[in-house]
Amino acid sequence: MLYQRSSVLFKAAQEVIPGGVNSPVRAFSAVGGTPIFAKSAKGAYVYDEDGNRFIDYINSWGPMLLGHAFPPVVDAVIEKTKQGTSFGMPTAIETEIAELAVSMVPNIDKIRFVNSGTEACMSAIRLARGFTKKDKIIKFSGCYHGHSDSFLIAAGSGAVTFGTPNSPGVTEGTAKDTLLANYNDIENVKSLVEANKGEIASIIVEPVAGNMGCIPPVDGFLEGLRAICDAHNILLIFDEVMTGFRLAKGGVQELKNVNADIVCFGKVVGGGLPVGAFAARNEIMNHLAPLGPVYQAGTLSGNPLAMAAGLAMLKAINADVDLMTRLEEKTKYLHEGIADALNKNNVIHTINRIGSMISVHFSQDTVIDFDTAAKGNNETFKKFFHGMLNRGIYIAPSAFETWFITDALSYKDLNETIAAVEEIAKDL
Ligand SMILES: *Cc1c(COP(=O)(O)O)cnc(C)c1O
User: Fold this and answer.
1) Ligand 1 centre and the CA of 122: distance in Å?
2) CATH numbers and ranges of domains, the chain
3) 383 has catalytic annotation
């Protein structure tokens, strides 16, 4: 495949945009080469500026659960656009999508819409701090909650040490209020809570982790977090920006039957437009301005185009009783096909999967947390990535990313993907 026009566009972009991209994950830093410039997309396919077609397993990093340019979403946005694109006044559609979201997700009474997953998580933490009148939070190594300061903290050694910032610009003052724990390690969380008694406002977690590959919670992990939070007046935040409306209509709360105190959304909830949201029961949400003292705002929050896209998306998901089963079956089929192809060629690997999320790790250890995810062989991944790309299969340009299965994928697409893996596996 040729990427001539992408190369030219990338050169021009680098002159005026840092690294040529508006979000670092789009650059090919971890795998080498030139990022592919997208031109259009439809269903399961994305087309680049050179006219190449790719079967897409990124799907805008999750939102396109029902495929690209999903007609109900496209139509809803076009119709709304004709009526004006922003008012800075309340609109009826905001209540409509809020009512639908509240009816789909367990254990929430009210929801507030924002413009990104980052904003949702940042606001959720502020709300948790305001509600509990405590400062510290616990997050897990390898979990991503957007790029706000409190969350850009790397793994420190020792369970009780304070985190240190892993981006310049995050102050030590902010970092010291973020404590790090190991994913799927409930004892680790217990000891952190003991060592910081009465100081922890919130534990924030991806209830199924998706930003270090796909890592489901081990049995008892989420239940354990719930029990610790109940015992210590800590609010449990489920960051369902990736999993919400994807792993079940009601997200992981429904799937695993564990309630969070605050839930964050993004990605699917916006149907491909910039939307995030956070939600909780009345007693917590009523602490937000203008009802309560915790401030949170947004000029374009609840934007009519974004709400129209999100509403069309949620309606389609809510109406389709077989959707989650279909997605899971496609993902399982892909899993088995890839595993067979790699096994036949003796390629060491581990595949994690839940619902429509799957990740391939070039490591023989089970992958249950950041340390085990980091053991994967990146050289093998690079070869795998470029092999797939050159065969028209677009997976994320990093070994730490989940593949997102869309309902638009046909079994023919899945077979084409498995055939590509079979070819590549010979050289891995
Ligand atoms: C993508 C993501 C975010 C950040 O959302 P943005 O819309 O990129 O700001 C937060 N949390 C999780 C779990 C995510 O996957």
Assistant:
1) 11
2) 4-69+322-425 (3.90.1150.10), 71-319 (3.40.640.10)
3) no
